[in-house]
Every structure is written in structure tokens, then in C-alpha cells.
């Protein structure tokens, strides 16, 4: 079981790290103000600092209300399993897309989710992901001229 207290601390910690990453990235550039305006790192640096400060304030607030937040259960075992059934396939989509390309990852993700969670027929499980992936390829590659990440299968098919 996951209490609201732990969830608030974890979220604040992750947000703090994201703010720290923004600050770190901004420090690769100048973060000041010159006669002609802000330098490249000016806004990202300040936004990162604001994010870090606010996440610390969320942590302080969580500790101040710790008694009430610890008794408030947010995620039970069953709810956590539902979240994993939703989240793990998305992580797999990212990994497959990086290895095999966006279109193959999208096709596999849709097919697995339609069959596994949607319990659709095999006909729909094959037809919908193939048609959706083809439509996405036409829209991005031909109409918008925005190529998505390609993998070895697209290269082999001559689509890259």
C-alpha cells in the first residue's frame, strides 16, 4: 500500500530532480542578462530554480501534514497492479521504439494492448494497428515531412 505521504514525497523528489536537470542544462550557457536581453540559459535556469523551490515547499507541507497523509492510502495492491499493467507497456513501447523504430514500436504496442487488455479479436488486433501505423506514416512522413525515429525494419523496407 502506498500512502499519500510517501507519494507526495516521491513526486516532490522527482520534480526536484527535474528542476535540478534544468538548472544543470542551463549552466552550459550564460544565465545572465546583457544589454541586448536575456542570454540563452536565463529562463531555463530560473524556471529550474523555481521548480526546485516549489518541490521543497511541497515536501515541507507533506511533513507538516504527515499524520493525516500517512493514514490516507492512495494505491492498494490491486490499484498498483492496474498502474503497472498500464505503465509497463508504455516503458516497453519506448524501449522497442529506440531499438526497432517508432512505427514498429507503435504497431506492436497497439497490437499487444488491444489483445491483452482490450481482449479484441485477432482480426481487429492485426487490422487496427497496421492501418493506424500506415496512416501515421503517411501523415508524418509525407504530409508533414516530419520523419519519426526509424529502425532496422524501416531501413530494410526502404522507408528510411
TrEMBL record:
DUF1468 domain boundaries: 12-148
Keyword Transmembrane attached: yes
Keyword vocabulary terms for this entry: Membrane, Transmembrane, Transmembrane helix
Entry-linked Pfam families: TctB
Membrane-spanning ranges: 41-63, 83-110, 122-140
InterPro entries linked to this entry: DUF1468
Protein name: Tripartite tricarboxylate transporter TctB family protein
Lineage: Bacteria, Pseudomonadati, Pseudomonadota, Alphaproteobacteria, Acetobacterales
Amino acid at each position: 500500500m502506498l500512502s499519500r505521504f510517501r507519494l507526495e514525497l516521491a513526486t516532490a523528489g522527482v520534480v526536484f530532480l527535474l528542476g535540478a536537470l534544468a538548472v544543470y542544462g542551463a549552466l552550459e550557457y550564460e544565465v545572465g542578462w546583457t544589454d541586448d536581453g536575456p542570454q540563452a540559459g536565463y529562463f531555463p535556469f530560473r524556471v529550474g530554480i523555481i521548480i526546485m523551490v516549489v518541490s521543497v515547499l511541497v515536501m515541507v507541507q507533506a511533513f507538516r501534514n504527515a499524520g493525516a497523509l500517512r493514514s490516507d492510502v492512495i494505491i492498494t495492491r490491486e490499484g498498483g497492479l492496474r498502474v503497472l499493467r498500464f505503465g509497463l507497456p508504455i516503458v516497453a513501447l519506448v524501449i522497442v521504439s529506440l531499438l526497432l523504430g517508432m512505427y514498429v514500436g507503435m504497431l506492436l504496442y497497439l497490437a499487444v494492448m488491444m489483445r491483452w487488455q482490450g481482449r479484441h479479436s485477432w482480426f481487429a488486433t492485426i487490422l487496427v494497428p497496421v492501418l493506424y501505423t500506415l496512416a501515421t506514416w503517411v501523415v508524418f512522413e509525407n504530409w508533414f515531412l516530419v520523419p519519426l525515429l526509424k529502425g532496422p525494419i524501416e531501413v530494410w523496407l526502404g522507408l528510411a
